[in-house]
User: Which sequence fits this backbone?
């Protein structure tokens, strides 16, 4: 019989969340480094370099890897011989640990949870509640798997019920391109097959918490059909050419994890959940001897790469930006922005567009004339930071507001991550504007370009309020130019062709033959 003290459990949850906010796991860093070394697409390699440099900076500075510090997912395995020294149930204790971690004075994490989800959508302020699953198992210990899952990748979760004879590979290959780049590849795909609808989704999520071992699997070859299937999917998903940030390249996934469960003879439920460049999770065990301890990894784990803009990068003075200059940008160009940008994301866009559509004026001093919007919800600043980690959020969510923003405000360009929809691209072309991308998962690195931040409007929206950032050489890539050319279309198409011409396809059968 082990006795788990409330204080030990809460502290362990809190410490775990702080730990994963700034440390990528060693297996993730190793796989990402390998992808960096193999990458031949210049923009994709540049994006991976930024993610790796950001990762090392965060490990060193103990600041979050990404501005989206996630929704907390917890899987508890509670031994039948465990006694709890508390009157509170485990889910309440988890939430207490989440609260403590996200309001940490030295490394506050961005609270992203809103309640209720349908109507009020008010931020709970401390990132509670977590999504906690409890399972009773034999033994006298509590096993905890805890993750901070980014919204961009969680939003791309997919479920289907296939016919028993349908191919999982075909479904995955048809589905992944539809996810777009909002899940910030390169990352992982967690796949759950079997059970029921909700079980397959849980399997997919739990699969993402397994260690990355694709390197090992590639070198030793598969020892069973499931491993052969993982290899086949790894090769074929990467052959789609989607690449880092969806810009086209050799690596879209670092690993494919699959879990299965028996299912009904008539069913083949399948679920797929991507995990992003900010893959964050850790496992620990409590046996009653005290709180869990989390050893800091050696900084030697990170590759000694540095990131600097290429010689062809163009320096842009935002204080003098004109539509004529924007028209000179071409998809794929690297820009270094200096001057003022305005921030806004979902909630602020909704407010602004409602005001504009009602014929009302925007609150003073909000003025988008000849300005650039950055889609971002930063982490709160600490110490002498101008702003906490401040990477881009998924631009696709702002598509529904873009026609109004471009048509009624004098806006010149937008900065976000991932692709834009066809109608939005047409709006960008019509208004001779541009869409730029920063690297999702490089939030701390991006934030170092921000010299100051000034609140402009909607303070009640918290991290979604509108700020004016003064940036110095903020690196971005032109993703959609004023002619409507889109890097998220041309990049993957080019690299898919390159890969097709370079490699024979790999199937489960050929993999077995090879072994
Ligand atoms: S890396 Fe991308 S998907 Fe992941 S948490 Fe950050 S912004 Fe969200």
Assistant:
């Amino acid at each position: 019989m082990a006795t788990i003290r409330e204080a030990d459990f809460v502290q362990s949850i809190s410490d775990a969340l702080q730990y994963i906010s700034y440390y990528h796991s060693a297996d993730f860093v190793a796989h990402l480094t390998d992808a960096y070394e193999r990458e031949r697409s210049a923009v994709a390699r540049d994006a991976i370099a930024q993610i790796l440099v950001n990762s090392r900076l965060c490990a060193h500075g103990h600041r979050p890897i990404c501005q989206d510090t996630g929704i907390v997912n917890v899987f508890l395995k509670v031994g039948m011989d465990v006694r709890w020294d508390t009157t509170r149930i485990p889910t309440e204790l988890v939430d207490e640990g989440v609260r403590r971690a996200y309001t940490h004075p030295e490394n506050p994490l961005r609270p992203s949870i809103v309640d209720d989800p349908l109507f009020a959508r008010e931020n709970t302020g401390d990132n509670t509640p977590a999504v906690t699953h409890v399972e009773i198992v034999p033994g006298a210990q509590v096993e905890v798997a805890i993750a901070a899952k980014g919204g961009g990748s969680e939003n791309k979760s997919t479920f289907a019920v296939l016919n028993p004879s349908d191919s999982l590979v075909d479904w995955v290959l048809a589905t992944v391109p539809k996810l777009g780049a909002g899940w910030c590849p390169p990352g992982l795909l967690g796949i759950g097959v079997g059970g029921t609808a909700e079980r397959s989704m849980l399997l997919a999520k739990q699969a993402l918490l397994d260690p990355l071992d694709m390197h090992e699997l590639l070198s030793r070859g598969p020892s069973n059909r499931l491993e052969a299937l993982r290899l086949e999917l790894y090769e074929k998903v990467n052959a789609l050419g989607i690449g880092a940030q969806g810009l086209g390249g050799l690596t879209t996934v670092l690993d494919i994890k699959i879990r299965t469960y028996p299912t009904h003879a008539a069913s083949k439920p399948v679920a797929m959940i991507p995990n992003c460049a900010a893959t964050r999770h850790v496992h620990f065990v409590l046996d009653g001897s005290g709180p869990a301890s989390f050893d800091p990894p050696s900084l030697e784990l990170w590759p000694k790469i540095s990131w600097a803009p290429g010689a062809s990068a163009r320096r842009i003075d935002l204080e003098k930006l004109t539509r004529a200059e924007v028209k000179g940008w071409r998809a794929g160009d690297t820009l270094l922005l200096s001057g003022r940008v305005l921030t806004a994301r979902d909630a602020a866009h909704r407010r602004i567009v409602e005001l504009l559509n009602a014929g009302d004026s925007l609150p003073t001093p909000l003025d988008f004339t000849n300005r650039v919007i950055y889609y971002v919800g930063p982490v709160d600043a600490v110490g002498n930071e101008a702003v906490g980690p401040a990477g881009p959020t998924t631009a696709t969510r702002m598509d529904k507001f873009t026609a109004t923003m471009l048509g009624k405000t004098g806006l010149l360009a937008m900065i976000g991550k991932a692709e834009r929809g066809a109608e939005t691209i047409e709006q960008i072309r019509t208004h001779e504007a541009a869409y730029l991308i920063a690297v999702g998962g490089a939030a701390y690195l991006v934030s170092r370009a921000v010299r100051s931040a000034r609140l402009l409007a909607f303070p009640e929206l918290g991290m979604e309020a509108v700020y004016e950032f003064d940036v110095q050489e903020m690196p971005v890539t032109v993703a959609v130019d004023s002619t409507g050319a889109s890097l998220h279309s041309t990049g993957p198409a080019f690299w898919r062709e390159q890969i097709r011409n370079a490699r024979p396809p790999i199937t489960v059968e050929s993999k077995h033959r090879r072994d």
About this structure: The two ends are 47 Å apart (CA to CA).
